Batch of 3 targets.
Target 1
Amino acid sequence: ARGMQDLAFAPGSPHVTSDKSLPLSVSRFSSSVEERFSRVPEPVQKRIVFWSFPRSEREICMYSSLGYHPPEGERDSRVPFNRGLHLLQSGAVDRVLQVGFHLSGNVTEPAGPSEPERSFHVSISFDRCKITSVSCACDNRDIFYCAHVVALSLYRIRNARQVELRLPISETLSQMNRDQLQKFVQYLISAHHTEVLPTAQRLADEILLLGSEINRVHGAPDPTAGASIEDANCWHLDEEQIQEQVKQLLSNGGYYGASKQLQSMFNKVREMLRMRDSNGARMLILMTEQFLEDPRLALWRQQGAGMTDKCRQLWDELGALWVCVVLNPHCKAEERALWLVLLKKWNKLDVCPLEEGNYSFDVPGATTALQPPSVPSAAATARQTVFRRAIKAGELCWGDCHLQKILGSDCYGLGVKSSGDKLCFDPQGRPLWLGDPFPTACARVDALRGHGYAREALRLATAVVNTMRVQRRHQLESYKQQKKELLHKGSTSITNLEGWVGHPLDPIGCLCRTLLEPCRTEDEGLALYPGMGGNVRKVLYHHVPVPSSPGSGESYVTLALEVALAGLGQQRAMPEGLYAQDKVVRSEEQLIGLLDEMEPDERLVQVLRKQAAVLLEGGPFSGFGEVVFRESVPMHTFARYLFTTLLPHDADLAYHLALRAMRLPVLETVMRVGDILPQSPLDSMMANRSPRWFILGHLETRQCELASAMLTAAKGDPKWLHTVLGSIQQNIHSPALLFRLAQDACKTATPASAPPDTTLLNISLELGLQVMRMTLNTMTWRRREMVRWLVSCATEIGVQALMNIMQNWYTLFTPIEATTIVAVTGTSHATLLRLSLDIGQREALCARARAVALQCAMKDPQNCSLPALTLCEKDHAAFEAAYQIVLDSAASATMGHSHLFTVARYMEHRGLPLRAYKLATLAFSHLSIAFNQDTHPAVNDVLWACSLSHSLGKSQLAAVVPLIIKSVQCAPMLSDILRRWSLPSPGLASLPSRRNAAKPPAAPGLDKAPLCQLLEAAIAAYINTTHSRLTHISPRHYSEFIEFLGKAHETFLLAPDGHLQFAQFLENLKQTYKGKKKLMLLVRERFG
């Protein structure tokens, strides 16, 4: 039990010795009384019994809710503590009786909408200010006390004087004579004979038996007398329920709620450790055993698959908690030995998860020499499970004399001069701690804080920060000596063998939370753990001076800021594995979120400026150094925080930092290699991306956000705008992100209620042009959107920008984009109105658009001829030039029949049928329709061309028939053409270009040229197609073949002697294919 001096008594309690005058705790007081008196006096017994019940409501809350909420806070009615508090306040507790170390009472649940009022009997046993067992008639099955136990406990704490107090029952029995005892027993049996009669008879039989076990034992048990002083006492914890609940939550591991509840249970362990409650380690052992029995572990190992991110986060928290438990500075040696035995046993299990990432435990976090890191030893590359760090932590001790002096006083080292021990003190005489690597030293700090030693944790944290400062100063001096050589070489090796941000021990986060905890303006200490506490809100910090640095102006807030800046700005290699890389990002965002809570006053801004300058000069030890390792973690997110925070105070420093951080070294190296290859930049980038950078897309997005922040801030400042533009063009290689930047810049430059920023608009256009050049030879579904946006952006700038992109279209757009989007949109009515041009400017812009259209038509006649003709309709010379391009392309076979037919139809629609006819005849020279292509895409075009030639006259008809015969071998199509020509032609007489009579020309007879030639070709096509189909015909196609012969018969009959020709054709078929008896039978039935 903890000392009584830190416990608050309930108001209105009986007047006994006050807290300050009680020199001993209840347990020690009981021990001394038992040793001194053979029989404890009744008044002393009553005092011991009275003060042995817990007096802190926080401890009751800890065992009845997942998180501690102050009574004044907003309460959740589902939490047992809050429900119990409500029952207490509503007067639901009655018949409370304390007999010795046993408390009992009734708690009444009020009636609900569908439930009657119910009363529950509650029993509580306690010993030395701890509840050791609970029992309630509600049969609660949970890891926490039920609301009824909470209500009775709070009643005893708040109304201690109103509770009827009795000595232990054994004391009462000792005052009775034989008759009283017999009467007492008989009345007790009579009152509860149905429950206790068998037990009473059994005990009577044993007592009457002289040699029985019960007669050999002196005295008798008393459940109200409390435990012996030698017995260990701890708070009641339902181990079976903990195991069952963890098992159930793990089986629902895919759900967000299950992971959140397990995290809350880990937070509960932290809360217990902070209260120095031994149940913290007990609960963690139970949870660990259930985690290792999770059947998914074996399945994942068998399949070679990684566990889910949620599960991995829980295992990380489990490993970190064990480090905290093992590093308990005041645990017993046998306890630590037991924990290490369990950890080593778990560590050997095949299913025990491995720690992801290339971190180590023994190697210091940063080197002071600019040498390439050595190859890891066999020990470093051994199997590293999540428990390996806790096992290593078990080898650490707290007995070092220097460490004990650091923990013992705020003034240690203040009198030491600079000539003192350089390994123990800095030049200002402040103590250093070099006994551990930086992450391990921070783990010690976290363990001290986690076990409730907040003052000692602050002292060690301050020493660790001082040590980090000295090491960074030595690193900077070492770098300056070799700076010229490194800059000349242009590259460097990584000097930090493991990053502090995203590290499994979270050293930066531990230090920051420890340093900030005493500076919070409200009691929210527990909320400093991620995931603990209620709603996130802005936290106010006040400056608490550092005792070991008097007169320096340092506070714990400034130290926390300095630590966070140093950790986030550390140049470090990207760890291996998707989860480890994702954890780096999450840890960075959490730290920046912690920094965002600090209001940047003058003192903090001074620290920011100083540390920013150090980061810029940090060389290979800083992520902002002039030369960075190729696979170092980018600084974009951190730089954005620094930029936005420093901008109001030191704009030049803010821009220098942000511009230095724009680098993405892993892509810059790839791009340099890709430039040698005959590929587009985008193709090269995509083909050569480093496969182990799983979060590269996320990093590029953060890079884009940093650039966007700089562009927005630089609005109105041409100097910085052009500098930022140069950095963007050099460092951002993603076309999609560049396009996003261009759009954002355009929106920023054109506010609704203010004139546009011309410089920013031009930069937006320049970024858009770069995107066009990067994606010119690639396929992207957003390309058309990009082109349209670029035209609209150029329109915002003015007519000259539009003229420029049209003039240089071949470096920016494909021909089809230039004609259908750029030229058309640039000369649309809406664009011309937007630009407010005079007649001369309009004509110049339209002339440029027509010139672009003609150039595109020459380069890509198939796709651009028709748009060019449409664009040039109002200019005769340009239209003629476009038409000539079409003719030349048709003659050189660069345009297919489908495009020629399309242009021909356009000419007909324009009222130029002769030009349409000319293009149609050219299309026939590129067309070939086989005998079995009844559904050829050009069928409708052929029929249209035939109708057009028929409407124009006999000479055109005579000229087109040979072309049709040459191009079309499909018999049904030829017969369809014949039938169309045998009918009156479709009227084209109303067209303006026609000068002949309104009556269309009559069709020539089928027995005269040129239609007789077409008829002969159709009959020949039917004969050839028939033989071809019969070669491989199957019975299921017989009916279809008969229908085909029927169509052939109709075509044969169009000839003067068609009947005889068809009869001869049938006879030939019967002789040639007489083996196909069933088919020939069908032919005879149909045609005779």
Note: The longest strand covers residues 118-127.
Target 2
Amino acid sequence: MIAAQELQADYHFPQEADTQLSSDTDLEDLEARNAKAGKGKAVKKGKKGPGEKGKGTAGKVGGQGRVNGHHQENGMENLSLFEVVRLGKSATQSVVDDWIESYKNDRDVALLELINFFIQCSGCKGAVSSEMFRHMQNSEIIRKMTEEFDEDSGDYPLTMAGPQWKKFKSSFCEFIGVLVRQCQYSIIYDEYMMDTVISLLTGLSDSQVRAFRHTSTLAAMKLMTALVNVALNLSINMDNTQRQYEAERNKSIGKRANERLELLLQKRKDLQENQDEIENMMNAIFKGVFVHRYRDAIAEIRAICIEEIGVWMKMYSDAFLNDSYLKYVGWTMHDKQGEVRLKCLTALQGLYYNRELNTRLELFTSRFKDRIVSMTLDKEYDVAVQAIKLLTLVLHSSEEVLTAEDCESVYHLVYSAHRPVAVAAGEFLYKKLFSHRGSEEDGMPRRGRQSLNANLIKTTVFFFLESELHEHGAYLVDSMWDCASDLLKDWESMISLLLDEPFPGEEALTDRQETALIEIMLCAIRQACECHPPVGRGTGKRVLTAKEKKTQLDDRTRITEMFAVALPLLLAKYSVDAEKVTNLLQLPQYFDLEIYTTGRLEKHLDALLRQIREVVEKHTEMEVLEACSMTYHALCNEEFTIFNRVDIARSQLLDEQVDKFNRLLEDFLQEGEEPDEDDAYQVLSTLKRITAFHNAHDLSQWDLFTCNYKLLNAGLQNGDMPQQIVIHALQCTHYIILWHLAKVSEGSSKKYYNDYGDIIKETMSKTRQIDKIQCAKTLILSLQQLFNEMLSELGCVFDRSSASFCGIKELARRFSLTFGLDQLKTREAIAMLHKDGIEFAFKEPSPQGEGNPPLNLAFLDILSEFSSKLLRQDKKTVHMYLERFMTFQMALQREDCWLPLISYRNSLQAGADDDTMSVISGISSRGSTRSKKSKTPAASAKRKLPDGVSDAGVWLNREQGAQTPVMMPSPHLTSTVLRETKKLRPDEGYMGVYAMSNEPQQHTPMVTWMLAQRQQAEARQQQERASMHYAKMRSHMQHAIRRGTGLMEDDEEPIVEDVMMSSEERLEDLNEGMDFDTMDIDLPPSKNRRERSELKPDYFDPASIMDDSVKSGYRW
């Protein structure tokens, strides 16, 4: 076994090997390579003199697609291996083939590039030079790279977000796998390339820097996986060679080919040597990297190790599937991080899935089974789901492993509110209870009482009753739906179990079991028709696929055809059982009522209506009566031809009940006679039936209000009315009032919209077509008038939650919707609307004096309803215009009276930073910064302005801005035109200009106003920021000087942390010694001590710490 071969304590890999690369190509197959065994061995063992190494090869073209050791992309530029892998646009195999050609020409140059590839993939900006490669040890190189690591950010390629890094990890791993695969026939045995790479990765994996440790561990584990695959292929070839040798040797002497025997012996010897070398490499990686990093402090690193060891055990089980390796997975199942525990379970699933490996897992299963069972209750739902799935595989491989107690701990999870956990538990339950068939069951019918499904349905009922969670039948059905839908949809067998008499020797269902079966049947029908989990599981309804919709329609058709016939019979049999009848009466709401007509099932409909009538007359329980009411409501659908038939039956039933109620009430309220209990019971029973139907049906034609009024009035006068009668009389009166209000509301709304709605809509549409600007000004003016009327009624201090204010705000929302979705068409109108609204809000000062909000400030809350219609860049412009009316004190206010201003500012700032069309100011530092990042040096130079654009800045006063501008055409380009910076007088400013298309366009006054507001505000904000920035830093520096101990006093604690877990966090099952000698650097953004110690004395000069943008903004 590989594990038995211990790594020597003084084992180290040579930095430079003197062996010469085999002349055989790395791409030739194994047979061809062994055919040249003599040549290959001679070359492999040959040595170069010290002066010959790499001689005459540096700088030459390494191979096709490479120039000076770099990959050439499209013949235009040279890319490093890191850049090629990062971009992911080149085929990995072609990149690796190019590198192999380069390695054959000059292995030092190629290997140096590979080393720098791993360094760059770690996020290090430094590079290993050829001088460093020749004269420095790996530890010295790593120390040097650590010092040159970019400390401005803790991110590195494996952790960076964004589309360009999305596929980096997969490309990185693929490159390593392809590299080993393409080198597996010669290069990996040259005692140079693999030794150097493994030595480098082992050193990096023990680095203090997390980025180095994470990246190198991933690389080492993927390298190990690739080597395991090579070892597996070698093992297979050795077995094949051995069989060929045995077959040849067993031939008779006359037929035996001695030359072939010698070739086979030599081939087996070569394969054995290669196998030994590969095992040495794998042992080096396992002992040098895995054993230390599987218990790293970083969960991601631990997860990588466990994931890969699972791959090794599954891929090469003969070498790795033993307790020496399984123990690491078992120990790590106690990890504190869910993602690591999850990797353990997924690794084990791949092993238990293969039944041939079960015998090798027996000891591990007995040792860690209890831990796996306990993980079904893991706090991380993903871990719990995978633990249940693993137990399902264990159950599938051997039933004797799990005890009844183990199984019961999983059974109850079918009632979990978390659906993935419940579904996994449902699959476990189905495998345990339902998936076993004996030979005698093969000949059983598919449907009916004697079918196999009938027995399984009984088992489901027994489990449901034994679980003692009867109110969660819908949860049980949903848990088993994915794996046992065929069983749960066998409604024919369910009906047979309920209606048919048991066969001789068959035990009939008890009353309790029949009730449970009806509930499960109802839940299955609901699941089939609604196609979504019950309440409490899932986020709501989802969009069904075409296949799911077809299945839904087919199931609904089957349900209707089957239960249209069976439901009357079921109701007749169980008519006196309230619980059973309540569930059965819910079935018609899932029927396709058209089938009653197309299937000629009208006689069964009549039978159903008769049974419902009998149920109403027999029962007084509100649950049963309400179920009957809802059934009539479902059947009384005017879209179907059965409506008249059902409506007549409903009317007849209600006529009888109302007449009976009036007759009983008259006798009940007779003066001078005290009603007995029997009369009270009759009145109460009839009143219950009427109340239950009035909930879902409009019974206004029977004038029930008069009867209930008499009943309640008599109770008030006499005071001896039974409590239940009063309750149901009040409830019935409540329904009477609700139905009346619904009619009045519906009639009023319908009359208003019929008489005026179309006229108003058409008027607004025509107005908008004639002039969008004037239409917007009209809308804002109407809102202002309503606001003024509200102030005159409620006063200047009013509640913004009042009906009047909310009504105006709702009207503003409706006005906003009339502008449609095309923001470019309404851009100018919306901007003018905001401008007028802002001016109105600040028009009148507060009547309460200075320091209080303006009189109309609350109008900004109404105006915010239109903020969503502004383009992103226009939001910024409007926000700048708003700040013209604000004082510095206003911006600091947080009282409730200032909330309209705060909410309006927030509505303008939402999404305003990521402008899609830039209008750059000549003096804005933010604009300048954006230009530097997005433009080439040529583009950032001064350009000539287009014809027709004046150099003078244009500012509009508020009177000019009120003019009606022309509709602005949407800009065709998003580029900008820059101007030279110029000092502004208080009354001057500069205006950014849109770059025009070939056809000259003229700015409208509205656009000019918007651009001008942006320029002036940005200039003002720039000066304020510079002043505040300087004042803040000056305060901080004075504080530091007063302390007298310099800046280092806050940094007494070390900036490194222990990579290994603390003694309290160690896994309980770890029984090996651990070394806690590795430190972790998370690369904080602040300067480290080494850099701070080199600061010059003039650091406290304010001018030396201000960046260029602040210096330019602050006038010294």
Note: The chain is about 60% helix and 0% strand.
Target 3
Amino acid sequence: MFCSKKKPLEVKRIVKANDREYNEKFQYADNRIHTSKYNILTFLPINLFEQFQRVANAYFLFLLILQLIPEISSLTWFTTIVPLVLVITMTAVKDATDDYFRYKSDKQVNNRQSEVLIDSKLQIEKWMNVKVGDIIKLENNQFVAADLLLLSSSEPYGLCYIETAELDGETNLKVRHALSVTSELGEDIRRLANFDGPDTKLMQNSGKTKFKRTSIDRLMNTLVLWIFGFLICLGIILAIGNSIWENQVGTQFRSFLFWNKEEKNLVFSGFLTFWSYIIILNTVVPISLYVSVEVIRLGHSYFINWDQKMYYSQKATPAAARTTTLNEELGQIEYVFSDKTGTLTQNIMTFKKCSINGRIYGEEHDDLGQKTDITKKKKPVDFSVNPQVDKTFQFFDHSLMESIKLGDSKVHEFLRLLALCHTVMSEENSAGQLIYQVQSPDEGALVTAARNFGFIFKSRTPETITIEELGTLVTYQLLAFLDFNNVRKRMSVIVRNPEGQIKLYSKGADTILFEKLHLSNEDLLALTSDHISEFAGEGLRTLAIAYRDLDDKYFNEWNKMLEDANAATDEREERIAGLYEEIERDLMLLGATAVEDKLQEGVIETVLSLSLANIKIWVLTGDKQETAINIGYACNMLTDDMNEVFIIAGNTAMEVREELRKAKENLFGQNRSSSNGHIVPEKKQQLELDSIVEETVTGDYALVINGHSLAHALESDVKNDLLELACLCKTVVCCRVTPLQKAQVVELVKKHRNAVTLAIGDGANDVSMIKCAHIGIGISGQEGLQAVLASDYSFAQFRYLQRLLLVHGRWSYFRMCKFLCYFFYKNFAFTLVHFWFGFFCGFSAQTVYDQWFITLFNIVYTSLPVLAMGIFDQDVSDRNSMDFPQLYKPGQLNLLFNKRRFFICMAHGIYTSLALFFIPYGAFYRDTGEDGQHVADYQSFAVTMATSLVIVVSVQIALDTSYWTVINHVFIWGSVATYFSILFTMHSNVMFGVFPNQFPFVGNARNSLTQKCIWLVILLTTVVSVMPVLAFRFLKVDLFPTLSDQIRQRQKAQRKARPLHSRRPQTRRSSSRRSGYAFAHQEGYGELITSGKNMRAKNPPPTSGLEKTLSNSTSWIENFCKKTTDTMSSFNQNKTVKL
């Protein structure tokens, strides 16, 4: 993996169809998909390399080597190697498990099957065995195995309709054309594999899997380095002390002991003492810290997996933590980068309302004529009399059906237009049901609405359109099709009805179509315009609907000019556009449609809640600008209350730079006039790019930028301007962006803002940004699994992001910070006692506690209580975490654990270590026990300090625990009981009899702990250690309570009284903004329809060609081989195809 060579850029690719032997000499990649990081051979070296990137692991390996030197170590080697091996093994097992699940997902994809032509026979092959140049047979609704070239199709003229949901989340169909020389090979879809496996567009856009670490991981690495430096300082102090002691006292002490050995070298003695104390004091950062961190993260991951409130019952999809190392980072997110289609929206268009001849249909009114909301109790319109009804369609305003029954001519003409003016293709399935194949989901919604109201589009040919009008079959002659494009923003059809009348039907963006209306429409125009504004205010996608009556003479003259323009070689497009403009005038307005690009449930509430949590949401989408802006307003990311929405659409770097400059001048100009020069900084300086500038901006702004402009803006000399402007805006929308640009935007913010980023998407085009962001989330919807496979977390609905961040993320960060603060505190308190003892033991590297206590302190006596706090603790409930998003801000500002908090914990630990050592030392100094014997012996002193330490740290964690469970009680008080059980056992006669060398101090614990003075010393030590902290916290909560403190007090009051449930504010938009026009299909469908290339032959069979399965594959193969021989003769002699 690390030694692989970089693949050279491929300029051209030579492929011979159905010739594996020839293609293999080019060494093209196979079709196997790899998203896992390891294999059996590389797991051990790569995983060990990754683990020893942690400074602490390398540090403990170094200590282990030192402990193997007997002249240095006063502790046995197993006290370090056992925990180190345990940590590395647990982490390796966890990493292997995570990667195994990725491997299983890869295997599932690789083992999908396709029919491949091998040796003139169709054979079933797994995807991973498909080779470049293979010819593949595909049937309807099959997955595509690789990047393919279409050779032929059952559709006329070699057309093929594909869905790219796994790539971009779009469920609307795209059209692909077969090569003209191969399009007549047969009736089934056949494709030639061009790019396999890692060479496919999907995998090329996926980006490289990165090893992600949290900010706390990186901080812990820094702190370990600092602690190591601190240990070196302590070791130097004690080594110097040893040299001085040996010089001044050691000589006389050796004479006292009759030690006649040669005099020790003072420098060498200090050198050995230095390393001895490094080993003794290494427990400041014990290896159990990393074991505990991994266990806590694993527990948090299971809480996410088990959360019933993030379970999507409709598809039986639970939330899944696909990694266990990033949970606390979920509580520190500042920027969310979201895809649109399939992530914010369901990509399901629904016909909601319409305005016909000045009257709105689709609203509900009460008895007083006031508009009311439609509820689930409201009975929808009954369409059962229509045998061709789409049963999924619902409409609640019965007045529209009444107008149809009464024969309202305007309503009939409105619905007739919807049934005629579109690019939809129809077919019947095996059950005889009418099926629409739509290239634009907007058109599908309009044609379906007309179908349910009795105007059913049945079929089309290049010259005719057949519809069923209220039970009567009517065929219209299609005279012209005026296609949609991004400039015209409308489409029209010209038809002749059975009565011989020529009509032009048009639909398009209201801003364009209203300019084409006849002057007699002035009153209706004003009324319809108000209706459209009302629809847009509700976040609906709107289209204006109009028609024009044409006489034969005028149309024939116009059509002759159109034929001449189509045949022209110069300025053809301009002449055609001019003719379209000429005939699309003096239109008569019929009304407008309102289609809902249905948002996923809870999107608006989620966006609002995340905004209150100071999380900025950027939308990165491949959709058009109008569509993206419309969704922005629908989600409340964009509002009419914003000071301004900046749109960057420059085509060159200079234009983009100028537009960014003008936007910043406009922004700062408005704020200078509104703020009067006053600056009020709020955010912490370490998280700001330019805090003064950012806090100067007082209004709400939004930025919209296109993909071509973004390409220039991401250049090195412009990107800082883009970033500065974007970060000053409340919302950023990037439209028409490529997968690579999505990743570049994420990387720009991630690198230059020093902020924690999250990317969320549902399609393969989101994989790059998911891998690039600190946290990647995949939506496991109907659009495939590529985003999920590359993600760190996955769930089924965007709304679950709110609970993931505000509850699980905030709790994980809160718990991890409390865990680390307590862990460093208790280990400083535990370890630094050795430092103070060094001044009273001749700096001899003698430990205060016995060896077994040192070994068991972090593994047994204090491990479970801190784990319980790190896994279960919570400051406020999940409901309050959701209701008060402002609680999330401390994580963004990194307030709960940072370098300052570390030094506070360190000072607290030092203070406790002083109390633990000097209070017993002073109390025992020249003191006697109740039996008249001295209590100042070494083991009694050690037992007293060890007991005081266990009780102090247990009381301290009890004070730190905010949320008590049975597990907390059992672990805390059970650990104290375990300490006393092990203590009395180790000092018993039984243990001495079995292991006399290991447990020589028989009865010491019983003798010491039966004396009242010992317990008074322990009580005094506990009070002195805990009371200052208790007093400080009481005063802080009483005088300077945080929001968390206030809510916790509120929770306590609610437990005593009946719980109060606050109602969420209504988030329904009320806006005057005009929505984007509801077109999403590509230009060129009009020409495709009128050419007849997508039409079937007359009298087609009831089932589509895509759904048929050939009963005799041999005839197809024979036909293919014959056609191939004829076709290939036209190519060069080596029969290669250059693609």
Note: The longest strand covers residues 345-356.
